[in-house]
Amino acid sequence: MALEGTLQDFALVDILQLIGMQRKTGVLTLTRKDETLNVVVQDGMVVWAAPPDEVFEANLGRVLTRRELTTRERWEEVQQMRARKGQRLVPFLLEGQLVSPRDIEKVVQRLVRETLYQALRWRDGKYTFAAETQVDLSRGQIPPVGTETVLLEAVRQMDEWPMIERRIPSLDLVVRRSNRPAYRDQAPPEALTVLELVDGRRSARDIAELCDLGEFDAYKGIADLLAAGALQLEQQAEAGARELRPVRAPRRLPSWVAPGATGAVVLAFLVLLFRASDDPLRVFPSSRLAAEAEVQTRRLTLAGRELPRALDEYLLLRLGYPNSLTELQTEGLYAGDLQDPWGRPWIYERRQPTYRLTSPGLDGRIGTADDLQISPAWPPD
């Protein structure tokens, strides 16, 4: 299969969906102006995404030194040692003693995932997909990321980014703790991770770069803490503490979402609705419309769950999906709860080589229009 064209005509989300559905292996190359990005896929799953070596290595060195995992001098020495041995950087670092392998894996996975999600913001450029029987993974690889996961993450960011923009008007503003309680008992773990990095000198951008959560989730954590009154931005501190009440995000798309990606998201939601409903075009009474609106919101925020990612990591570790979801916690891959967005246990089914997660939705009954399902590729009965 050969794919070539422009992102104005065929959005990246659509391209990844096509590659995922056909379980293709190969390299997707994206270019615009002076930027180039290679996305490596294996059996329809993303296993690597990075700019050219020199750019990726510079980004990796910046993150490692910024987090004080190494010094700039030591980083330069390692670069020279690696060059003399003729090895790729990531495998060399995993073998050496510069940084612990676990830290390297975490930083590399974050860089790769953020590179992929940032590419979803490209509104122009060209793409070329070269299908191959095998791909070169000598630069490195991450646990496979399904195209469904990419789509869900795109939906989540598209839905929540306007709220973040409203609460953080500039990423360069300094974030400070307020005089109010930190709400540690009520705050989710992600928000507490962000809170620990607030020292009164760092900007929102600085905190996101230092945080293990990733760029988007770090900004969301800051926004949530601002709404709770636990944090203030620089211009708010002088005016005194002021509670920021949560405001419903305006129903507009962030500027970075490509029109094609919007179509893919809408299509994905309609497919879910038609599959789940015997009469998808029926007219609902106003109370039902309100319930359906909540269902849609729940669907969009579902991507914030880390459960599918933990299942993918378990697959890489054990070469198969677990017999039960509790095995993810036993392996230390998942620290959250095992409940759906409404607080009910997920219904987990395994049929190798895949799995299916099912939620009865808002009404608590299986087989109705608001059911939720996540499955990489559930085989027909």
What does this structure look like?
The protein is an alpha+beta fold and 381 residues long. The protein has three domains: 2-145, no CATH class; 174-239; 277-374, Glycoprotein, Type 4 Pilin (2-Layer Sandwich), CATH 3.30.700. 45% of the residues lie in helices and 14% in strands. It contains 14 helices and eleven strands. The strands form three sheets. The chain has a six-stranded antiparallel beta sheet. A three-stranded antiparallel beta sheet has the order 9-10-11, with no helix packed on it. Helix 8 (204-210) crosses helix 9 (215-228). The longest helix is centred in the middle third of the chain and has 21 residues, at 147-167.
Average pLDDT over all residues: 75
User: What distance separates the N and C termini?
Assistant: 29 Å
Structural class: alpha+beta
Q: Give the count of helical stretches.
A: 14
Q: How many strands?
A: 11
* Share of helical residues: 40-55%
Oligomer category: single chain
Specify the overall morphology: globular
Name the strands of the widest sheet in spatial order.
1-5-2-3-4-6
Radius of gyration: 22 Å
| Largest sheet descriptor | 6 strands, antiparallel
> How many discrete structural domains?
3
Residue ranges: pLDDT <50 for 5 or more in a row?
A: 236-304
Strand portion, in percent? 5-15%
The H/E string reads: EHEEEHHHHEEHEHHHEHHHHHEEE
